[in-house]
Structure formats: C-alpha cells, structure tokens
Amino acid sequence: MFPTRSTPTRRRFILTTAMLLVALTCATAMAAGWEEVSDDDGVVVSMKAVEGRDLPIFRGVAVIDSSMIDIMAVLNDTEKATEWMANCAESKILKRLGDFERIVYNRTDSPWPVSDRDVVIQSKTDINVEKRTIHVKFWSIKSPLKGEVEDVVRMPRLKGHYKFKALSRTRTRVEYQVDADPGGSLPDWLAESATEDLPRKTLLGLAERAKKTSKDGTYKEFVAKWTERLALDKLEK
Fold first, then answer.
1. Cis amide leading into 187 (omega within 30)
2. H or E element: which one contains 192?
3. d(CA 137, CA 174)
4. How many other CB atoms are found less than 10 A from the CB of residue 63?
5. How confident is the model at residue 86 (pLDDT cuts 50, 70, 90)?
6. Superfamily in which the 37-234 domain is placed by CATH
7. Where are the domains of the chain?
8. The pTM is what?
9. Burial of 154 (0-12, 13-18, 19+ CB in 10 A)
10. Phi, psi at residue 98, to the nearest 5°?
11. How far is the C-alpha of 93 from the C-alpha of 96, rounded, in Å?
12. Which SS3 state, helix, strand or coil, does residue 228 take?
C-alpha cells in the first residue's frame, strides 16, 4: 500500500508517475505522425505527411539476414550504388572528408516524361562500438564540385539516414529514412509510387547485394577489420 500522508516517498511516487505519463504521451504523439503504408517482402514502409510538400517523409524498416558489417561495406562502396539502390542512375564521390565522411553526387532516374533528379549530398557515419550500431546521416548541400546538369532537376532538399543495429552475428535491423523536396513538378502517381516503392526496393536491393558480396568476398578486408572492432564474431548467429 502507498503512504496515506504526503510523505517524501509518496511525493516521489506521484512525481515519477507524472513524468512517465508525460513521456508516454509524447511518444504516442510522435508515433501517431507515421502511417504504415505497406508490409511486403519483409519491409515495413511508413510515411509522415508534411503540409505544403509534394512528398511525405518516408521510412523503410527491415531485418536483413546478413552481418551489419557486410551491409555497411556495400553502403560504403558509393559508386556501386547503381547496382542495388532503387532508381539510382549515378553515384559518385566528389570529395572525401574522412574515412566515413564524404561529398557525393547522386542522380535518380525518373520515368518519361518526368525529368531525372540529382543532388549533391554530404554524408557522415557514426559507429558505436559498445552498442553495435551504425548511423549514416546524409543531407543536401550546395557545392561547386558539381554544376547543374542540362534537363536534370537539382533537388532543393534531401536529408535522411540509414541506421543499422546488430541483432546477432548474421542478422541486422536496418532503417532507411528520407525527407526530400524533388523540385519542379511531380505527378501524384509518381509521388505515391516513390513513397512506397523506393524504400522497399532500396532495402531489398541492399539485402541482396550484401548477401552476394559476402559470398564473393568482395569486401573481405573491410569486413574482417570492422567485425573484429565491433566484436561481432562474439555474438550468436
């Protein structure tokens, strides 16, 4: 039973309960902004509408049956993104700022008669050894390293992330989120398709590519180095 008088213990209990209720209310309000639009092929796709924008923020979440480092190795090979990333027509490093920080040019293929989109982004990777997590952030920038391309629309805004969490030695939770302003005019049917298809196809492509490169030993040295640093070999399969 709780104390009947206003003792310090009871006051602490009331304060703790109130704080928990506030935290739960805030968490519920934040989650309410996301709407699940599909759950196919092991990828849960959600969207968050933003007033005044053509595209909502979209997010894809999947558990991939590959080592977190195998997946990271694929993502780290920027110029091979055309082989797995949905609608990626070109991906090129313009400048390296560090081991895991760089300026990149990306071009996205669009169906006729819609113009292709392109963007210059800066990306940075944070690796948490203790938690065995990787957070890759990217955001659009203005840069003289790549001028505008004829008949291609330069995207005014793009920001997002990949988040990896090692669930075991061979299973990884991956979250891919993008908030973009594609610029120019965009048909409603293409906006709706992009919201659902891009995150799903990108995560499926990433999973397939990681499986292939792991089997082929494409990134053997990178994988060995970071598997040891994060002690992934000590996790259960």
1. no
2. helix 188-216
3. 13
4. 14
5. very high
6. START domain (3.30.530.20)
7. 37-234
8. 0.83
9. middle
10. 175, -175
11. 7
12. helix
